[in-house]
Design goal:
The protein is built from 6 helices and 4 strands, in the order H-E-E-E-E-H-H-H-H-H. The longest helix is centred in the N-terminal third of the chain and has 18 residues. The relative contact order is 0.12. It is of the alpha+beta class. It folds into 2 domains: 70 residues, no CATH class; 62 residues, no CATH class.
Length: 162
């Protein structure tokens, strides 16, 4: 399994924990729970306020099993929580893991080989620190800077040539 796969699995667990940890809330004298968050395709209508189109859908479920699809504004009003902000951050992290897969997996291999003294080429201590910093940044769901990308690409290419 690659580093990107590990990060994606951990992010999915975070998503599950977030949903499970969400306290039930009241709407029209009924108790609902947040059961899913997703991007609608095609865009849909909010079952609470009727707003159309809604791109981000928050599926809420009543204890009798019935479900409603709710938009950003309504879910935040119903729950009194900033759910949409959390979801945007989650989605951005996931997209960044996918976008930076080559760098994440390449740097993971390089840094692991360096630690075990099995790297077939030399890297300065300064560059190791910089590579580790770029790797940590990407593991936290952020994009690398331009300089970090260039440095990572340089060493990943060296590893591919050996």
């Amino acid at each position: 399994m690659t580093k990107t796969d590990d990060l994606s699995i951990e992010l999915s667990r975070t998503y599950g924990k977030y949903l499970k940890g969400f306290l039930p809330f009241k709407y029209e004298d009924k108790t609902y729970s947040l059961v899913d968050i997703y991007v609608a395709s095609p865009w849909t209508r909010c079952d609470v306020c009727g707003n159309h189109p809604i791109k981000y859908v928050y599926a809420i479920k009543h204890s009798d099993g019935s479900k409603l699809r709710v938009g950003n504004k309504c879910i935040e009003r119903l729950t009194n929580c900033k759910v949409s902000g959390w979801f945007r951050k989650f989605k951005t992290k996931r997209e960044n893991f996918i976008r930076n897969r080559r760098y994440l997996d390449g740097l993971d291999s390089i840094l692991t080989a360096y630690k075990s003294s099995e790297l077939p080429f030399k890297i300065s201590e300064n560059d190791i620190k910089r590579l580790h910093k770029a790797f940590e940044r990407m593991c936290n769901g952020f994009n690398p800077t331009r300089k970090q990308k260039e440095l990572a690409q340089n060493y990943i290419s060296m590893g591919a040539r050996t």
